[in-house]
Structure formats: C-alpha cells, structure tokens
Amino acid sequence: MKSSSNSVRWFVQLVSFSVVMLNSCSLTGAHTHPLDPLCPGELLLVRSILINASIMSPVDNIIATLEVEEPEKSVVKAWKPGQELPPRKALESLAKRGLNYSEIVLLPLAPGWYDVPEDEGLRLNNVQFTYANGTVNYFMRPIAGLFAVVDLDEKQVYKYIDSYSEDIPLPKREGTDYRLEAQEPPVLNPLKIISTEQPNGTSFTVNNHIVQWGSYWRFHLKLDSRAGTVISMAEVLDDGVWRSRLWHDAGEYGFGANASPLQPLNDCPRNAQYLDVVLPSASGLPLVKSNRICIFERYSGDVAWRHTETFAPGGTVLEARPKVTLVVRMVSSVGNYDYVLDWEFQTDGLIRALVGMTRIIQTSATKFTSVKNDEGNDGDSLHGILISENLVGVVHDHFLTFHLYLDIDGTKNSFVESKLKRRHIQPGSGVPRKSYWDTEKHIAQTEADARIQLSLQQPSEYFVINSEKTTRLGNPVGYRLVPGATAATLLDPEDPPQVRAAFVKNQIWVTQYHKEEKYAGGEFVYQSHGDDTLSVWSSKNRKIANEDIVLWYTVGFHHIPVQEDFPIMPTISGSFELKPANFFEDNPILKAQPNTAAEFSAYFGDVDIKVKE
Amino acid sequence: MKSSSNSVRWFVQLVSFSVVMLNSCSLTGAHTHPLDPLCPGELLLVRSILINASIMSPVDNIIATLEVEEPEKSVVKAWKPGQELPPRKALESLAKRGLNYSEIVLLPLAPGWYDVPEDEGLRLNNVQFTYANGTVNYFMRPIAGLFAVVDLDEKQVYKYIDSYSEDIPLPKREGTDYRLEAQEPPVLNPLKIISTEQPNGTSFTVNNHIVQWGSYWRFHLKLDSRAGTVISMAEVLDDGVWRSRLWHDAGEYGFGANASPLQPLNDCPRNAQYLDVVLPSASGLPLVKSNRICIFERYSGDVAWRHTETFAPGGTVLEARPKVTLVVRMVSSVGNYDYVLDWEFQTDGLIRALVGMTRIIQTSATKFTSVKNDEGNDGDSLHGILISENLVGVVHDHFLTFHLYLDIDGTKNSFVESKLKRRHIQPGSGVPRKSYWDTEKHIAQTEADARIQLSLQQPSEYFVINSEKTTRLGNPVGYRLVPGATAATLLDPEDPPQVRAAFVKNQIWVTQYHKEEKYAGGEFVYQSHGDDTLSVWSSKNRKIANEDIVLWYTVGFHHIPVQEDFPIMPTISGSFELKPANFFEDNPILKAQPNTAAEFSAYFGDVDIKVKE
C-alpha cells in the first residue's frame, strides 16, 4: 500500500472512519458525493488526530494542504446519487466485523524508527483501531487484527494490516465508561466534606512569573510547550540572604502543549490558585490556556520534626512542628495517559518531584474471556493481563527523565558519589565486631564518572556540590539527589526503541552544560536513530568537575496491569527528592513555630484537642 | 572491673552521675551520708534508664532489689560529715574533664551479643556519657573517651573505659537546644494558618477497637507493647460484602511501650481523633496512656483518578476524583529516636505503611572543628560527618521489619513472584523489534523460594494470592506488595549484630505461620546468638503454597548525617504499599463522586474556583 503522490490519502481514510464523532458531518450522512470536500468537523478531527499522535501540538500550524483524496476516476464515474459512497480499503475491513464506521476511533501509537532498511528515511506511525459505540472509553475496545502504518511526511497510509479472526470478538462496552453520568446506580456514598482551609489566605504570592512563599522560597515559574512546568532561579532565604539552588524542568514529553485544564476541588484543593498560561502558535500568535497550573499550600497532617524527651534535665520535653509544603502542579493529558506532575517545596529546603499517573491503559483484544481458557498457560501467554472479557492490558514501561540544571550557590558545581563501603575488621584488633561501613567520596571528573545504575546491594549517595564554597565546618555546600523507587529498562541495548531511548540506560547522568542539549532524547525523538541523545552527549566524556553541569534523573515504572485498572486506573506515583546536604549550617526550621490551639480555635471553633502527657 | 556479688553497684554509679536531673535529690545535696539509701528520684531515674535501654518497658515490674552499693568499709569510716561524698570510679574520670557530675546524662547504647568468648552468657550493655549543662539535647554533647559496659543481670559495671584525651573538648552547647523557648529571636515568621476542616465531622467511627471508615474499610485496632499499632481483621466492603484482607503489625521494636503522647495540631491535624490505650503492668494492673494513637482523614489535594479526553464521541470529557485517605498514626520515642508510624488506607483498597523518622542523631565527640583540619582526609576518616564543632554524626542504619499476616479471602494463601523477563526476538521473524519483556510467574512452594533480595536490574512483582479463589476472569484474587525505596544491610554476614539481625538479609521473606514466630529477631533479641530469628525459621524450608502464611518486609535506611540534622533532624520517610491486584473485579472507586463547588461554597464560602475548559 506504499503508494504514489496523493498527499492527503491518509487523512481521508482516517476521517472517513471517525467523522461522526464530532457530530458535524459524515461520509454516509452529510456528504453526498465521493468528491465532496472535507467538512469543518473532519478538518478538526484530522487536527485532533495529529495532536493525539504528537505529530503536532494544539498550537502548531503545520498543515499546509489538507484535501480529500480523489477516488479513481472510474469509481467516481460509476457512482450514482443515492448509492453508498465508494468503499475504501479500511471500510471493507470493518464490514466483515459488522461494525459501524462512524464509531471507529483511531489511536496513533508511538511513532519512531525501528531500523527496518526499507523504512529508512520515512516517518511512520502505527495506528490502532478502536470502537467507541456508546462509551467515551474507546481505549477499552480495541479492534483485533486491524492496524495501519502511516507515513507522516507523505500523509498517507504506508501499510495496512488486517489479520481478522472471527475468534476474537470486540471487547464489551459494559463497564468501560468512567464518567459519573454513565454509572449504574447506586454510586458510592460520598465521604463527609473535607477541605484545606486558610481563612487568612495563602502565604505565597504570584507576581507575573515570580512565586514567593513566605520567608522560605522564591522561584520563576513558566509552562514550556515541550517540558511542561519549568522552575527556574529557585532561591531560599537563609539568614536574610537569598541563595540560589536550581533550575529544572521535566523532559521532552510535550507536557506543556498537552497540559490539561485543571478542575477545581478535584484536581487541586479549594485553597489552590490557578494560573493561565500563554503558549505561542506557529504563526506567532499567543494562545491563552486557562487553569493549566495550580499552586497550593499543603498540610497533610505530617510532622516537619518532633521529639519527645523523657530524660532531659528539667522534665519532659514535647516539641513538634507541623509540615506545610508548597505544591506547583500541572497535569498533562497525552492521549490516554494523564500525568500529574508536582514540584513540592518544603520549608526545610527539600524539593520533591512527584509523578502521578492515572490513566486509561493501553489494551489489545483477545479471544479469551478467562485466564483459565488461555490454552493452559494461566495468563502468561497473553503478553499482558486479562482485565476484562476479550481485553488484555498490555505490559509497558514509563520513563520520565528530568533535566536538573542546578546552580548550588554559583554556576561551578561538581557531582559527588559517596559510596557506602563495607569494611572488615581484622581478628585480633580487640574489637568484637567483624565489620562496619563507612563512605568513600568520589568527585566525578568527567561524564563517564557519572553514569549511574542504582543498586540496593552497592549503594551510594549522590550530591551536587559547590567545591569552592564550604560551610563553617568545611563541608562543601550541596544538595543530595535522593532517588525513590524507580525502574530500569529491560530492553536489549540494540533494540531500536532502546537505541532512541538510550537515555534511560542509567538512572543518573551528569553532563557539562550545553544549551542545545536540553531534551534527553534529542530534538527529534521519534525518527531519531539515537544519534542525538543524552547517551551520545555523555560519550563525549567532557569535564564536569567544577563546571556548569546538568544532572539528569529518570523516574521509571514497569506497568503490569490488573483488573483494578479497568476501565480507568487509580493513580500510581513515583518521586525523587533534592535534599539540602550541608547547604545550611544547621536545621533551617529549628526556629519554626508550632501550631497553637488558641489560634485554631479562634478561626475554626473549639474542638476537644487536649494536649496530654 | 568485672567484679563480685554486689548487685546494685551499677545502679549507684549511674544514679550518682545523673541524680540531679530529676530535681529530687542528689548525692552531693540531699544525701548526707555515704550509706544513705536511694531516694524516690533516684529510683525513678534507675527505672528511666532501664526503660531507655529497652531493658524494661514502662509497664514492666522486673526490679527485684534495688539498693545503694555500700562503699568499702574503710572509706565509710574515714568519711566525716560535711566532707564530699566518697568519689567513685566514674567521678574521678569526670573530675579531670572539669565537668559537673550533676549534668551528666547516661545513654545506654544497643545491648547485645558480640561473640566475645569471655563475655559469653552475660547480658552486657554499653553506656555512653553525655553532658547536658544547659541544654535538653545532651545527645549533641558526648563526652569523648568515656564508656561503661554494664552487666544487666548482675546489675553492675562490667567494664569501664576511660581513654581521656585533652585534645577532644566537649562539643559546644550553643545551638543544640531545639525547644522554641530556647531559640534566640527572631524565630521564623509563621505561615498563615492552614487546617483540614470537616464541618460535618468525620466519616469514620471508633467503637471499642473497631474502626469503620465510610463504606470502604473496617478493622480492629490495638496498641501492642512490643509491636505498636496492630491492625487486624481489615475488611473492605465490596458490593455489600465485607472481604477479609490482612492482619499486620510493626516488628519488635517495643514500639507500643514507647508510644509518645501525640500533640494535637502538631503531631496530627485538627480533624484527628485521639485514642487512649491501655497497656498491662507486670502486676496485671492496667495502665492508661493518653493520646497514643490518632486517626484522621487526609485530603492532600491529590487525585484518586482522572482523565481528560479530547477525542471522545460527544465532545471533551473531564473527570477527576479527589483522593481522601484514612491515617492511623502512632509515634514511638525510643530514646533519641522518634518513629512516626502511619497506616494509610485508600478508598481504592490500597494500604500504605509509612515510617517517618525525625530524631536526634547519635553522635561522638572529636577533636576537629573543621573538616579541613581532619588530617587531610576531608572528612572520610571521621566515620561520620562533622555536623558541628567537635561533633560527629555517626553513620548508621535503620531496619524496620513488618510482620504482615495476610488473609486474602481466606487463610490459605500463596506467594507469587512474577519475574519481568527480557525476551529476544529472532532476526528474520518479520518483527522489527529486537526485544520485549513479559512476565514469568512462580508460585513459591517452600520458604526457600521466597527469600527475596530486590534488584532494579532484575525486577519482579510480588503477590500474595488466594489460589482457590479467582475473579470472574480467572485471575487469582490477590494483593501486591509494592516496595518503596529501601536499603540492604552492608555488614558481614558473620558479624555478630548481623547474625542477630539476620532477618534483614532479605527484604522479603515468607514463612508458614506459627504463632510463636512473631518477632523477626526472636523473643529475646539482644542476647540472641541468632538462633531464633526469621532467618532460622525460614531455613526450615516449610511448605508455603496454599498455606496460612506470613509475609515479612523490611523498610531500611542508611543514614549519613548532614549539618541540617543538627541539633534535631527534619523528618525523613520510607514506605511500602499493599495494593489490590485482581482482588476487585474492576476499579473499586469508579463510582466515587467528585467534589462539587456548590457543596464547598455552602460550607466554606465562595472562592473564585471557576471550572474552565
């Protein structure tokens, strides 16, 4: 099906399948002739498909020509008014499945280079076919055996695969729709109302792009089309002096362009402040998008520090300080995936990056309605998990690589790996112990010294320090990268997607700063042959000791679905921390004040909250 | 100094050093004769020391005899009224340091067996000497070179080590006190008041020991002297049927006996409910302890699930549900350590165990006031980090082993390891990929199959399933153990403390249930030779497939202090999750309702929270 010069063939194919979804026109309804042009709804749909495929963002202006493909002249001539419009290749395919064309939704899967010689030089994208027909959750209704490969440059179908098997029915619609209005009663009883309240308002201010939070933090905040929320020039007030810390953003996921409008009270708490963002269109015109960022103070009921001291001179000591944090949130809805991306700032100087994922998982259709019927393999042969009748949740990974361009009190920084080492005690030394552990610090001299694969059995701590500035005790001022639970790639290093995503080979990398090395996968990810990734930059092995450096960290997830992920998946999350490590001279919130009963009673009334001993 | 039969010698030594701390009597004050008996304050102090050393809990009744040691007859005879009381060995030691005996505080360090032949059969405990003298944070003022080893059975000093060096001064007092009243002004400006408010009250009830939360959870809650909070008989309402899940408790840390009274508004939020607990005394009398547990609902502003759908038939879909959880909290103050232990229940069936640690770190004195003066070793020779002048924060580990006695819809359960495996695709297969990954399930047949060391590079998922009950699709109903960031032991397996703590060798173990195998370190931990630990039980290699089984998981921390940990350390935390995995037929909170602006406005007034598109 790799064919000639008609540049809009693919579009017509796609549009013809799904046009009714926009309720504007259809090939079988509003259109009355094979040569009818695309209607507004079809144009919008094409645009939507391109966006969903990450071929363009909502603000791009890349569509030069967009016309319906003319059928073969002989077909047009043979057609007469009142007859069905000429079938196209895909429409034939659907007929044998007994499906209604108007309910087909096309899912562009991840495009990219796969090292197939005959495909070399082409920008191809696989398209999966799903069937909505009464649910908004068409992701749960994949049509088995039907795939198309689209040439994104030529804008035409490159390959078309139809391995129809009557054994594999369409997964059922029932139970797939997640909207409240679609639920059979009874719905769950709500919990009693709960809210975070700040009767005196918030302790943060937003002036243009500068956010300042009490006497703790100030930073510059913007939404980047590709990276999403970008925090720059973050500084902390330390004894009256603003000290610089870092600049960071989130990868190359088109996070910003796909930022979802945040729903008050559900996406963010009542005390949140919402920010509109402005992104450029391809024509240079500004596009204002509402509620793309929210900022709020969080009090989860946790403690910042505490101690109960029973043996102190003078009697029992009970000291506790509540933990309040500042959260900057955006949600990026990339097709069926919703990523909740939080930057959380603590008063003690710690910054936590959290990635929440709540989404509709990717599926494939299967003939099986029970694991036990799975040809005796008890599910292992499905390459996924049976999450509903005839529906497999496909196993997959997520890797989010963070670009952390730190400035610890200056631009000349170094990366330190502090290895935790078992030490053996020689017999006869008089010490009854046989071992202990201590640390061995290595300042990474070049990029090769800073390619880190995390290991539980051979642990290290990781720091970015300013080697030219120390605390009064001589410790270099620094921040520590504290990994959370994460995942490493399982793919063969030579597998083309892995070559393109070579940046996930290590969990940590450090590179010398170069302005153009911004996105871990390079400028053009999908058709990259892996020649412009973080891995390639690191292989230059440039000097990173006492240089302007970038720290890269990847939060990874393996996802093996379960039935609870159907039809929509509860949030899972991953995180890492940037934690001050001899950045301050001592605990920076030692002088924080506790909450007092009198103040709370004045604002919220009395409750029985006796302090007891 | 291993000596004779006088059974109270040690007590008198200890008391004489620290008696003034209780403001009740002192050897140099209230006591007027060398033969004076112990006063009430001294008795209480002895008791306190025993408690602090975990030799007894506050409710134990193990002190059979407790008298002052009689000095040598010649000394008593030579003494005359008005003269200083006869010096004891330790008092001599202190004189040369110029310290005031009344300000000495003794810290019992970890007792235990160290495989020293001459110590065999003895219960010994090391005691560190610190100097309060104007601070409640005596932990930051260790006295260099002065240690005692105490025989806990004979109740006498077994060894006394005084390696005084005039090079090592006492670490300074300034900056060590963490109480608000001890801070030099100005203190930090408080953030504006923030509270979690529930105008209609909570959605949970506590009836005797049964906690029920909305239509989501009910469980039995108690505080165990040794294990702390114990959650039993946790059940979830699933389509009107309460289904059983689990029974779990937290290790053998004497967590319960050391539970700290919780301070409202600082240890728990305003909407918390506090529970008193009753623990038995050795004589069988009940001891009521106030505010040892708090329960509260948490709304952190996070989302339980959400999705923005731009391409759905019928137009854009925006669905989001707020995440509200139920937290059961206790804080155990074990000497200088404060462990915040949370069990957090989610509406989607997930249970999260969180360990927060906020404490005063363990220290040793050093002659150094700067890392740069550390004989050129830049801190590496200190076996710790210089956190203040003359003060080293000692590197150490924390391991908290959880005993998870699960019942997934019945007592016969199995442990499944699902290994994530890279698969290679043969060239010529027509697939452009070179690899993919899938899972390979192993049902652990015996205990040897379930000794798990976590690995990022060779990942697995871990489940407890009921092999006899499946979902409608044939998936076995189960819960998944989701490890968080954790740490593995670095010690030599033959090192005596490691032999006693062999249970931290693996992060996960599964054993056949036996009532007496309750605490991972065995009944008597400190003097154990490692012959009654989880490791020993597991070595029996009993059958665990389709049996009544116990899952053990260890949350570990390596702690390398930083200056920010001085004089008191901000909270760090670790966690793991128990996550439903084909336990429900689908997402159990699909039918949850979103928050609505009307309801919030009615209770809290209007704010500008426009829902935008």
UniProtKB/TrEMBL annotation, chains A, B:
SUPFAM superfamilies named in the record: Amine oxidase catalytic domain, Amine oxidase N-terminal region
The protein, known as: Amine oxidase
Family the UniProt entry places it in: Belongs to the copper/topaquinone oxidase family.
One Pfam match: Cu_amine_oxid
In-chain residues carrying the UniProt-annotated modification 2',4',5'-topaquinone: 337
Cofactor(s) for this UniProt protein: Cu cation
Gene3D superfamilies for this protein: 3.10.450.40, Copper amine oxidase, catalytic domain (2.70.98.20)
Membrane-traversing stretches: none
Organism (species): Riccia fluitans
Active site: 249, 337
Documented EC number(s): 1.4.3.-
Superkingdom of source: Eukaryota
